[in-house]
């Protein structure tokens, strides 16, 4: 399994390089691997139907729970029919759909194959993180396929919206996975489903987060608008990603986890509410559209809501309905998209208002399209009818109020579905008064066959209803069946579901005919409740907040930055010093009286430096502070230290004097009159005071004798043969520090030289020099 | 074996001197740099293997046992980070050699660049390897000294001014650092980290936490933790691409390393640390918001750099094995990916002549190879699987869920949100720069300035060096298994601290 998935990705990586020779046949080469996958899935069919699974596992980073674990079971198998089965059809269709010499062919083919591989991995994953990895890969593929070259604003906006919405959901899902795995003690999906973690706030949070991922990926209200937007992608891409496979990932995830969580509190109510709402909104919006493809996209939104409800309900019959609808939708929606693609390809438009007379011109295409649309509307004997019947039956069975409410929603949604299906038929194939018949060349066989295959299957699986029965029953096995398990059949006798179906079709016809009046009703929804403006406002809001926050704090002013740093220093460690530290108990103010005048001198000089107007004054005052501190060393009995200090001060002073000769005598920076001085004074005083208090508190806190200092004094005479401890430290005990500091000096010297030389350095050649050639003109500079 | 610990510091330091002398022999100078960083990477591998097999490799310099002398220690963490750092430095060096040859020809040499770059490498190694707080200060001085020169080298007045922001903030942080060392010495009488860890326990709790918080502030400035980060987005983008790449990749992470080292070895927080979690949350969010607001590609990347420092703080603040292992993985990942992105940005600006995103367009069609080189690290940084950013982020999320306090959940949520915001910023770059209509390259605004070149020429060496780093980033993901294992062992070492102390102080210390 893993080999198959990897093979897809490797082939995708190779396609761009080999497509130079392959041209448009790159798509056909790409179709090989989905075909192999489909074949493999079919050979495993009997084993899976017998309840068996195929397992495979490869460790990646097991410490983090990252293991690629794949498992083929009935649900994965059903999804592979969509992923690989539809994948083969689409890739074959692409060969004839795209211009043979289009530059984008190599990219599109590679991305489609990569997507097919990622999607295969997604539906086979038996590990939460494995699933997530492939989940995000499909998002990235979708982003690039929707955006294409990003030439139009529409492409850029739609691809970004699809990316942002699904990644936000994906990330929240990842968080949900982490929480769920933490609760369950494993990231294996099969293990979690077998023994789900106990209900509780954390599990519920995890489930809501996971559902958020499923809802965004499967375009549930209010996140659904990215899906119609994604229709800027080429039609085969839309058919594959945004109808048949990728958008079903959310539905798939719900189906995968429902056996464990359908009775957890937030799971089913959330799914039922949003699912029904999505089914209604999507169906209703489809009635508005004049672009056939967008009409189908809203239809997909609506059907995804339907599927969500079926997959999340957690009862045997409804689950059977879910499996049936999953495949039925994949078949009829890919048929319809491919048909729209053909119409668009041949007639040059897919606008309802511009198309007319296609039925007369393309009778075969019309039959194919009609099978798809009628299956979508739920007309017998087509496959879609079986799924819808089973769904009605499933929600009638229990007879609880909740189920009946859901049933009402589904019937309403199905009526809308029937309505837009009829609208599609009329819009695509009908002859409209006052519209010129579309002129269109005959489509090639290469385009027709991929559209005809799913239509034929729709008919076959509907007429021979028992064909799919075993698959649906096996899928529904985790849910307890009643005494008389449901089975798929065209005829269950005169029953309530049949009556409901009749109602659905009748009202569908009515809605379609009364469309104009229905659509006019729609103006009542206030702007802020609509999803698309909501998305746009959110993104704009995010940008505004970013600008505001960044503009507010990133002021570009060094004094502000320094003030913030010092304030943080005062507030964060400072509060700990003040609350947790204690002053030494016996505090001598001075050791000898001489210290007092020296201290006063140092303090006065330090304060005076901040007020100095002339550079020279400031330098001298700083020197006074330095010499004063040297004096303290003398008074404390450290003549060696004092000597070092005096030397440093003197050298600095001398250096400064040389530099100052070249600079203006006064500080050039004019003190701003508007900004008051006191905040700076306050911050500096606070920082200084904190250091002073800390010095007292820290030295007072010492418990052990200063081991290192004693070590220095002890070892200096014998070990280092030095009587001056400072020297011994500098050149022996801690000579490594000295090496480092010498390097710093050398670096500083180089830096200064580099800055001075900057004015005299070699320049890059001008354009003229470059053409004349001689690079010698920029010889080694000194 | 123990002598090997000093080599990664001494080699580049000695080579720096030699490199200065070799100023006239351009090729020799270049060769020297490449050889030294290759040697350092090899040394790092040897040290990592040894540290992983038989514990920390310790060298008491000058034969003076701790705490009198200075101790160098290579344990799993320091050897691992040194390995990654040296590989990145090597790649950046090759890139900048390529750039130099493209712009000035093969025979011209640079007086300052190579020596300074080598000194920078010595400082980085020293910071990782030292077991001594004061020596760590010296290491920072060396790094900063070299970085001051590199950021203001061959420059214009505007850039010198921006460089001053960097220099003065760094000097302030050094001042606070040395003040803190004085206070630490006053309280404990030692600056040896292993020795400190024993002595600090005896101090009153208030002094302990004050000391820990001072280190947070000092190293927080270096690692650009919000709100101590403002200097970074104002100064990094003003340096040429390779310099920014190595600063962004390494310098802040050395700060993070110092945080991790001191807060685990010296202090024992016992449980997850709410205050640092708060810092991590605002760092992640404020940084990412800053990135979204940018039009300048390099500033955008700088803000993302700040933002992702938050992830490492998050892992550290959780203060358990999983969290620390996540933080270590994140450092490893981030050093590589951030440097790569700045190099790619360098390639881009050479073709477009601008760093303004709105001035670029249609690059995916013009330069598909560069588009790929950008896309991989961009997705990587945003934590999109299967790249290393995802692996490291996942480790952190798991750690957050494992700790399970309210604040840990808040930070976990913030981490996920930041990942989203990062992707948004990257998607913006992609849409503005790589999609849309192609625009003609902008003319070089100032030929004397190396920041924006816009000559439209990139050499094979530059592209290869960038590609090598991209591949290295992917390899980190491929070897996530062994890497996560060694990170977990390193994290266990950090929280235990015993083996480190024993290795430095000898048996009787325990």
TrEMBL record, chain A:
Domain NADH-Ubiquinone oxidoreductase (complex I) chain 5 N-terminal stretches: 65-103
Region of interest (Disordered), ranges: 763-782
Domain NADH:quinone oxidoreductase/Mrp antiporter transmembrane as annotated: residue spans: 125-402
Species whose genome carries this gene: Actinoalloteichus caeruleus DSM 43889
Domain MrpA C-terminal/MbhD residue range list: 600-664
Keywords: Antiport, Cell membrane, Ion transport, Membrane, Transmembrane, Transmembrane helix, Transport
Compositionally skewed regions (Basic and acidic residues) per UniProt: 772-782
Name of protein: Multicomponent Na+:H+ antiporter subunit A
UniProtKB/TrEMBL annotation, chain B:
Keywords annotated in UniProt: Cell membrane, Membrane, Transmembrane, Transmembrane helix
All residue ranges annotated as the NADH:quinone oxidoreductase/Mrp antiporter transmembrane domain in the record: 131-418
Family the UniProt entry places it in: Belongs to the CPA3 antiporters (TC 2.A.63) subunit D family.
Cell compartment(s), UniProt: Cell membrane; Membrane
Topology of this chain in the membrane: Multi-pass membrane protein
Transmembrane segments: 31-49, 80-98, 110-128, 134-151, 163-187, 207-232, 239-260, 272-293, 300-319, 325-348, 369-387, 407-427, 462-483
Species of origin: Actinoalloteichus caeruleus DSM 43889
Protein name listed in UniProt: Multisubunit sodium/proton antiporter, MrpD subunit (TC 2.A.63.1)
């Amino acid at each position: 399994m893993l080999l198959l998935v990897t093979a897809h990705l490797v082939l995708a990586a190779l396609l761009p390089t080999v497509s130079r020779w392959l041209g448009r046949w790159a798509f056909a080469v790409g179709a090989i691997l989905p075909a192999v996958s489909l074949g493999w899935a079919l050979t495993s069919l009997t084993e899976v139907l017998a309840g068996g699974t195929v397992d495979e596992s490869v460790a990646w980073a097991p410490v983090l729970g990252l293991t690629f674990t794949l498992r083929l079971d009935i649900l994965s198998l059903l999804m592979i029919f969509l992923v690989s089965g539809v994948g083969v059809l689409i890739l074959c269709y692409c060969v004839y759909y795209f211009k043979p010499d289009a530059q984008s062919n190599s990219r599109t083919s590679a991305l489609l194959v990569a997507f097919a591989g990622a999607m295969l991995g997604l539906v086979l994953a038996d590990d939460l993180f494995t699933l997530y990895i492939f989940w995000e890969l499909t998002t990235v593929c979708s982003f690039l396929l929707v955006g294409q070259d990003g030439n139009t604003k529409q492409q850029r906006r739609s691809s970004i919206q699809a990316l942002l919405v699904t990644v936000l959901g994906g990330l929240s899902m990842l968080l949900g996975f982490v929480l769920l795995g933490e609760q369950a003690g494993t990231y294996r999906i099969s293990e979690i489903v077998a023994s789900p973690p106990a209900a509780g706030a954390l599990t519920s949070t995890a489930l809501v987060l996971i559902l958020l991922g499923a809802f965004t990926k499967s375009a549930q209200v209010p996140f659904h608008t990215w899906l119609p937007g994604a229709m800027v992608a080429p039609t085969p891409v839309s058919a594959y990603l945004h109808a048949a496979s990728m958008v079903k990932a959310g539905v798939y995830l719900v189906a995968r986890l429902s056996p464990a969580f359908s009775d957890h509190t937030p799971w089913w109510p959330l799914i039922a509410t949003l699912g029904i709402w999505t089914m209604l909104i999507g169906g209703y919006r489809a009635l508005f559209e004049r672009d056939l493809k967008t009409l189908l996209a809203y239809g997909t939104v609506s059907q995804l809501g339907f599927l969500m409800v079926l997959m999340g309900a957690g009862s045997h019959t409804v689950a059977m309905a879910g499996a049936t609808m999953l495949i039925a939708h994949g078949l009829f929606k890919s048929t319809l998209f491919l048909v729209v693609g053909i119409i668009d390809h041949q007639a040059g438009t897919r606008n309802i208002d511009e198309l007319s007379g296609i039925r007369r011109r393309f009778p075969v295409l019309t039959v194919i399209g009609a099978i798809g649309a009628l299956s979508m509307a739920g007309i017998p004997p087509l496959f879609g009818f079986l799924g819808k019947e089973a769904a009605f039956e499933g929600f009638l069975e229990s007879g609880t109020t909740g189920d009946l409410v859901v049933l009402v929603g589904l019937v309403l949604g199905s009526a809308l579905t029937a309505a837009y299906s009829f609208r599609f038929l009329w819009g695509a194939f009908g002859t409209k008064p006052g519209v010129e018949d579309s002129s269109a060349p005959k489509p090639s066989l290469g385009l027709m066959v991929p559209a005809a295959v799913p239509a034929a299957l729709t008919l076959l699986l509907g007429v021979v209803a028992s064909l799919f029965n075993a698959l649906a029953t096996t899928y529904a096995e985790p849910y307890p069946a009643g005494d008389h398990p449901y089975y798929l059949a065209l005829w269950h006798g005169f029953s309530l579901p049949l009556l409901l179906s009749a109602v659905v079709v009748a009202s569908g016809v009515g809605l379609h005919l009364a469309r104009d009046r229905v659509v006019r009703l729609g103006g009542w929804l206030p702007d802020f409740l609509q999803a698309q403006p909501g998305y746009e406002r959110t993104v704009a809001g995010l940008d505004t907040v970013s600008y505001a926050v960044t503009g507010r704090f990133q002021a570009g002013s060094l004094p502000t930055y320094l003030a913030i740093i010092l304030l943080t220093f005062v507030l964060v460690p400072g509060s700990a010093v003040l609350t947790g530290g204690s002053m030494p108990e016996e505090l001598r103010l001075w050791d000898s009286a001489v210290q007092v005048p020296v201290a006063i001198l140092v303090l006065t000089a330090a304060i005076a430096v901040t007020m100095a107007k002339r550079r020279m004054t400031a330098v001298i005052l700083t020197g006074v502070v330095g010499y004063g501190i040297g004096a303290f060393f003398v008074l404390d009995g450290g003549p060696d230290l004092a000597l070092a200090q005096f030397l440093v001060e003197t050298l600095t002073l001398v250096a400064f004097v040389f530099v100052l000769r070249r600079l203006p005598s006064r500080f050039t920076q004019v003190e701003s009159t508007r900004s008051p001085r006191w905040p700076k004074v306050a911050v500096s005083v606070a920082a200084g005071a904190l250091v002073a208090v800390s010095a007292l508190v820290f030295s007072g806190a010492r418990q052990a004798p200063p081991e290192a200092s004693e070590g220095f004094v002890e070892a200096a005479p014998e070990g280092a043969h030095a009587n001056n401890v400072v020297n011994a430290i500098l050149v022996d005990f801690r000579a490594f520090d000295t090496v480092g500091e010498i390097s710093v000096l050398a670096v500083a010297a180089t830096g200064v030289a580099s800055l001075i030389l900057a004015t005299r350095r070699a320049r890059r050649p001008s354009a003229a020099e470059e053409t004349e050639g001689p690079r010698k003109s920029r010889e080694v500079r000194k | 074996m123990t002598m090997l610990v000093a080599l990664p510091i001494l080699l580049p330091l000695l080579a720096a001197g030699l490199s200065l002398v070799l100023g006239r022999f351009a090729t020799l100078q270049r060769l020297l740099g490449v050889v030294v960083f290759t040697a350092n990477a090899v040394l790092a591998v040897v040290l990592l293997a040894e540290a992983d097999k038989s514990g920390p490799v310790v060298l008491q310099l000058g034969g003076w046992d701790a705490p009198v002398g200075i101790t160098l220690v290579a344990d799993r963490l320091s050897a691992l980070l040194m390995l990654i750092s040296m590989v990145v430095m090597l790649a950046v060096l090759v890139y900048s050699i390529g750039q130099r040859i493209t712009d000035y020809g093969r025979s011209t040499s640079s007086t300052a660049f190579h020596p300074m770059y080598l000194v920078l490498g010595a400082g980085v190694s020293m910071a990782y390897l030292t077991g001594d707080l004061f020596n760590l200060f010296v290491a920072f001085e060396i790094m900063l000294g070299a970085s001051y020169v590199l950021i203001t080298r061959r420059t214009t007045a505007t850039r010198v001014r921006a460089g001053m922001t960097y220099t003065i903030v760094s000097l302030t942080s050094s001042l606070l650092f040395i003040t803190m060392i004085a206070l630490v010495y006053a309280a404990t009488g030692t600056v040896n980290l292993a020795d400190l860890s024993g002595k600090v326990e005896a101090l009153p709790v208030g002094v302990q936490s004050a000391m820990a918080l001072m280190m947070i502030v000092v190293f927080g400035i270096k690692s650009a933790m919000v709100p101590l980060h403002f200097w970074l987005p104002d100064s990094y983008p003003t340096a040429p691409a390779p310099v920014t790449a190595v600063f962004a990749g390494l310098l802040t992470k050395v700060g993070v390393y110092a945080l991790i080292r001191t807060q685990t070895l010296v202090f024992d927080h016992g449980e997850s640390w709410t205050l640092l979690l708060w810092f991590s949350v605002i760092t992640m969010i404020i940084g990412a918001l800053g990135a979204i607001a940018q039009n300048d590609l390099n500033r955008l990347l700088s803000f993302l750099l700040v933002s992702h420092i938050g992830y490492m703080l998050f892992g550290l603040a959780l203060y358990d094995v999983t969290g620390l292992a996540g933080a270590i993985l994140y450092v490893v990942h981030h050093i590589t990916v951030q440097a790569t992105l700045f190099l790619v940005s360098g390639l881009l600006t050479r073709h477009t002549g601008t760093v303004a995103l709105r001035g670029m367009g249609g690059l995916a069609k013009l330069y598909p190879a560069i588009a790929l080189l950008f896309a991989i690290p961009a997705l990587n940084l945003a934590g999109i699987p299967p790249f290393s950013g995802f692996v490291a982020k996942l480790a952190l999320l798991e750690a957050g869920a494992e700790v399970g306090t309210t604040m840990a959940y808040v930070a976990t949520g913030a981490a996920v949100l930041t990942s989203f915001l990062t992707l948004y910023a990257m998607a913006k770059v992609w849409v503005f720069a790589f999609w849309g209509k192609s625009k003609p390259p902008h003319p070089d605004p100032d030929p004397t300035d190396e920041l924006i070149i816009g000559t439209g020429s990139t050499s094979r060496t530059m592209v290869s060096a960038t590609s090598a780093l991209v591949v290295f980033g992917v390899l980190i993901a491929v070897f996530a298994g062994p890497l996560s294992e060694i990170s977990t062992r390193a994290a266990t070492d950090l929280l235990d601290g015993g083996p480190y102390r024993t290795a430095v102080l000898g048996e009787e210390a325990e």
